[in-house]
Design goal:
CATH superfamily of the largest domain: Type I PLP-dependent aspartate aminotransferase-like (Major domain)
Helix content: 40-55%
Number of domains: 2
Shape: globular
Number of helices: 13
Radius of gyration: 21 Å
Order of helices and strands: HHHEHEHEHEHEEEEEHHHEEEHHEH
CATH architecture of the largest domain: 3-Layer(aba) Sandwich
Mean pLDDT: 97
Strand order of the largest sheet: 1-9-8-5-4-2-3
CATH class of the largest domain: Alpha Beta
Strand content: 5-15%
CATH topology of the largest domain: Aspartate Aminotransferase, domain 2
Low-confidence stretches: none
Largest sheet: 7 strands, mixed
Number of strands: 13
Length: 371
């Protein structure tokens, strides 16, 4: 290997420093107008988000967790209502359902590490009212199968698309299959702002009206109070920054797909690894690679070795599926998810790493397994 490098998992300071002048200019422009809450920048961002995804409506919210909670509140869950989720997901997928009054039911993952449609079908009970598939790591689930199960059992689908803005299945955007989809604009996301931020999209005008009221103290688009609500508005300054970043979003996605291809070409022959699917040009899936999560033999030893070489990695969500956290009260045993979290690790995947950085990471991994 070449001399030691420092490749953090995500270089947060560069999120600001690489575009410092543009960001400061945006802050000054918004500040001079005193445009901090629900101004034209937010309206522009919501319009851009709906246009980009092909959804009829978009609402900027404080974060993606709020987006999921508001979506389920808009649907109207009752005590005892069950919603099926993947156990390979962020806690928010489940907590949003609990907050909205329902009961999450975690199930197994399939070969693509996303929710297994067969497990979903097997988990349906008379109490099941919905499915919340997680479009994870920038990849969209097999939504044909999910929507078929939903239609057969009269279930509502709300997508946790926090990591999947721009991801598509059969040409259709993540977040547009069910009644609503929630996105995250956390700084490390493919499209990130400078704090928490989220957005919800929907094609259902009634759901949109409820979402809008819920996110702004029960007020409708005319400012009239129509119901009880809360405060979950995306800050206008964050929306202005997101507008600037959206201009180059397609370039960002393209670059991440190049990095994924490089990882595939360097590491695809290693028997000790199970890589995520490589980018497809004309296939069913168009992945945006929010993360590059793989499975590895001797995972913990590999993580330590890479750290010694200056390479940052992450084991997502504390190395547990949702059902494995004892304090949450789940009783399921999901051996596929549990085995996955014994082997899973994320490599650096962001706009700050170069071709040489990727080669350095891959050389380190090869050297580890050749020792």
């Amino acid at each position: 290997m070449s001399e030691l490098r420092k490749i953090p998992f995500f270089d947060y300071p560069r999120l600001f420093l690489d575009d410092r002048e543009e960001i400061l200019s945006t802050v000054e422009e918004v500040g001079r107008r005193g445009a901090f809450i629900m101004q034209k920048d937010l309206a522009e961002f919501e319009s851009t988000l709906s246009s980009f995804t092909g959804a009829k409506h978009a609402v900027g919210v404080a974060n993606a967790t709020d987006g999921l909670e508001l979506a389920w509140l808009a649907v109207g869950l009752n005590k005892g209502d069950e919603v099926i989720i993947s156990s390979h997901t962020m806690l928010a997928t489940a907590s949003a359902i609990v907050t909205a009054g329902g009961t999450p039911v975690p199930v197994e993952i399939g070969p693509d590490n996303l929710i297994d449609p067969a497990a979903v079908a097997a988990a349906v009970t008379p109490r099941t009212v919905g499915i919340s598939p997680t479009q994870l790591n920038g990849r969209t689930c097999d939504m044909d199968a999910i929507m078929e199960i939903a239609a057969k059992n009269n279930l509502v689908v709300v997508e946790d698309a926090a990591q999947a803005l721009g991801s598509r299945f059969r040409g259709k955007h993540a977040g547009t299959f069910g009644v609503a989809g929630s996105f995250s604009f956390f700084p490390a996301k493919v499209l990130g702002c400078f704090g928490d931020g989220g957005g919800v999209i929907t094609n259902d005008s009634q759901i949109y009206e409820k979402l809008y009221q819920l996110h702004d103290h029960g007020r409708d688009t005319n400012g009239d109070i129509k119901s009880w609500g809360r405060n979950s508005r995306l800050d206008n300054l964050q929306a202005a920054i997101l507008n600037k970043r959206f201009v180059r979003y397609q370039e960002v996605i393209a670059r991440r797909r190049v990095i994924a291809s490089l990882y595939q070409s360097h590491l695809g022959d290693l028997e000790e690894l199970q890589l995520p699917p490589a980018p497809e040009e004309n296939g069913q899936h168009f992945d945006v690679y929010q993360n590059y999560e793989l499975q590895a033999d001797k995972r913990d030893e590999l993580k330590t070795y890479l750290a010694e070489k200056g390479i940052g990695t992450i084991i997502q969500w504390g190395g547990k599926g949702v059902h494995q956290w004892d304090g949450l009260g789940f009783t399921q045993k999901l051996p596929i998810v549990e085995r996955f979290f014994e082997r899973s690790i994320m490599l650096p995947m962001n706009m700050f790493i170069s071709h040489d950085d990727v080669s350095y990471v891959c050389d380190a991994i090869k050297n580890f397994y050749r020792k």
